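Question thread 4412

I'm putting together a teaching handout and wanted feedback from people who do this every day. The idea is simple: show students a protein as raw sequence, then show them the structure tokens that encode its fold, then repeat with a second protein so they can compare. Below is the first pair exactly as I plan to print it.
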Amino acid sequence: MNPFRPQQPEEEKPPSYDRHLADSTPFASSSAEPPELWRPRAASDDAAAASSGPSEAFYRAASASAPAPAPTTDVTEKPGSAAQEDDTADGVADVDPGPRELPPPEYTRQDPNDQVFVLNPPMIACAPTDAGPLVPRFQLAQLRTSNNKPYKLRLRRFTTTECRRLAHPGRRGPSALVEFDDDLTMYLIANTHALFPWSSPEIEIRGCKARTLPGVVELRRTVAAYQFWHVTRNDANDMLRPENRRRLEKYGYHADDEISRALLYAAEPLSLLSRDQRWRDGDGVCVATETGGALRLAADLDAQGKDALLACWVARCWLLGTLNW
């Protein structure tokens, strides 16, 4: 040491914690192994454990208060028991479905028991039999040209409230008349000869509702009958389809090929000089008879066929001039 060199103060070293880290065991470290509980620990270890966390007595009390596991028993499961336990756990019990119920019948506003129809312009009354009470069910409305010629005829069905009100005996006066609702028009009958005498066909009937016949019904008069033809579009012979291109190039375009015609109803007299008519369908089956101004059904028809028959009957009477009001 140089005596002439001034003495420098010694640098203070920070305290070392290695000894404390070596004495303590980090339980949160993944590399350190937990202490063996069955070995007796020194008093210093008990003091360190008491200062660091809960004592061993706490763990003993917590383990003593825990519920004991339920004893397991060997039970032989029956087939289907697991599914029953699942249903019971979900709160759904097995219920016997019983006999299968039939679906409710389709709603219809037309009385299926009506078999007799009497034309009383501007209404059509119906009854189950000839002796039954007549109840107004349908209403007619007529549109005329400027020359006072009948041009269009509308047919619609009365609502339930209107039928009940018109069927009351004391309310059939002028105050009981119901205005025609164009939105409820079921069939529209047009007399094409009223505007164009050379036009053909003479009568056209068009359905205005979803449950009416699609397409157009045309009236053709022959020597012995009034024939009503149902005209619809034949999609199979549409010349715009690719499969019909070669046919179009070979034979040319014919409008009648895209139209399908089928005989719907035909009215023919019962005898040579009789005014009574017999109504037949396209298969030749007699479906109704017209005697004395009343139409009587002779076969079971669905609602669509019955409405179409009434429209054809009204169109024929309108063409003959018997609808005057």
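The second pair follows. I'd like the answer to focus on this one:
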Amino acid sequence: MSKLKVSMNTAIELLKTPAVPYRLRFQQLYLLPFVKSFKFFWFFNNDNSNRKRFSKLWIQRFPEGHIPEVIVQADKMHGDMQHWEVYELLERLKTSKEPNILWRIARALYFLSVEQNVSKSNKVNMINEAQMALQSALSSGGVENADVHKWMAIILDEHYGLISLENRVRFSSLVRYHLEKACDLNPEDYDAHYMLGKWYYQMCQLSWFQKMIAKYLIAIEPPKCDYALAYKYLAHAEELQPRTMLSNLYYLGNTCMHIGQYFKAKYYLNMAASLKPRNDNDKRFLAKAKRLMEKLDRYDLARNNVLFYDPLGFNHDY
């Protein structure tokens, strides 16, 4: 579906909104990008106060406790990879300070920022806007919203990474804090547990030399981590969605190898090797899993099988 057609559909839905006076409907219609060129419409008046009034009316038309229709529509568009259309749909409602709208705006901006042919300056602007939206969500009742914290972690990591590696390291603990909050608030969130497990894994992978550089040149004490924490969150992610993400199985296998659980490591890596790669990233992890399996062949797995258990039921047929 073309952007113009989506914009026309959005405009039609806007004009059909019964709770909003006609003048406000036309004023809000002006905010849609494809309409801004029609400046000969005398009734368009881009007044910020009216924009705030419209946002409040839009949210109020939905009964308390029900997900607004606009959010359902935005999630459907997101599933169809229509990230610009999601941003276009929700951006006019950001003055409502609704956390569930604001984190979706941040999500749309993130996916737009990682598209090909996006300049660094545009990417920085998108990430900065996403961060502002999430800060607004946290200050507007989103402190107990798991998705707000999850996307704050993603956006902060991207934001500081765009500034410098030093800043990315300096604020890594802040990223961990938001991921931990996301996991605590929603124990069923696969992505949050996967990202937090990966965070612990990557911290454990820092060499002695890298830790010394961080401590004495960047003046940052790297957080103390162990592979057991990485395993805890990665294993929980796998429990939530078994045999889904090749990279998670690879990290699990590598983590088990580092803590001496070679039999379990090979089990996870075998499972990773059995999955069909869906993209180039999966292909890279598949190759890494196979290389790691070759290393594991050097070990006598029989001496380790007493430590093996199968919490996810991978030894059963489904």
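Top answer:
Good format. For the second protein you could add a caption like this: The chain has a mean pLDDT of 78. The radius of gyration is 24 Å.
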